[in-house]
Amino acid sequence: MTYMKIINYLKLTLTAVTLCLITVSAYAQEANENPLALLKEGNLRFVSSTPLHQHQDMARVDELKSGQQPFAVIVSCSDSRVSPEIIFDQGLGDLFSIRTAGNVMADFEEGSIEYAAEHLGSTLIVVLGHTSCGAVKAFMDIKHNPDHQHADHAEKLGHIESIVNKLNSEDEENEVFKTEGSDKYQKAIEANVIHGVKQLRESTPILSEKYNEGKIQIVGAIYHIESGEVEFLDL
Ligand SMILES: [Zn+2]
């Protein structure tokens, strides 16, 4: 390699490193200032089949050795089609994930969210339901068919019954059953998200205080498994 070639090579390397640092810095700044925009942009990349797959390499593993600062908490269903890092095109250290069937939350889940908000600096919490949710469907089937509530069936439900009972305890769900129409399933999915957002906004002492002081955002969204799109709800 000639002297000039070496100089040019070094110049190119320096430019690439500089661009990389600018990109990393811009990303970190946007994560701080507008974490919701990062999720929306990531979902757009996913839907348009142009994911960056950033933060999914050994460099990121190395970067995270000293700690994590996930910019968002995603409370989603355990459904294998609703993986937050994939549908939002994020990587290691970006999202703090809570997943249960039907994205229902009790003390363990709320404690995990509080930990992220209080100790990891997460400022955005998303309660993410999804179309064709099996947990909501199970709840609706039982609601429509009281025979399922017979002791024999309850035994077969096992611990799934706790999830169904949780959904049944939500006022928003019971309001859906007072209405008529063929879109009850979709409404029940939304009602569960609306309930989850309300539950977290009113959760004392940590989340409600942070939310009321404007230190964290708590939003609801529906993932459409047919299209890959995340629809953020106006709540
Ligand atoms: Zn589900």
Automatic annotation (TrEMBL):
Its EC number is 4.2.1.1. Pfam families: Pro_CA. It is an enzyme of class 4 (lyase). This is carbonic anhydrase. Residues 1-28 form the signal peptide. Binds 1 zinc ion per subunit. GO terms for biological process: carbon utilization. The keyword Lipid biosynthesis does not apply. Its cofactor is Zn(2+). InterPro entries: Carbonic_anhydrase (IPR001765), Carbonic_anhydrase_CS (IPR015892), Carbonic_anhydrase_sf (IPR036874). The keyword Lyase applies. GO terms for molecular function: carbonate dehydratase activity; zinc ion binding. Belongs to the beta-class carbonic anhydrase family. Zn(2+) binds at residues 77, 79, 130, 133. The lineage of its organism: Bacteria, Pseudomonadati, Bacteroidota, Bacteroidia, Bacteroidales.
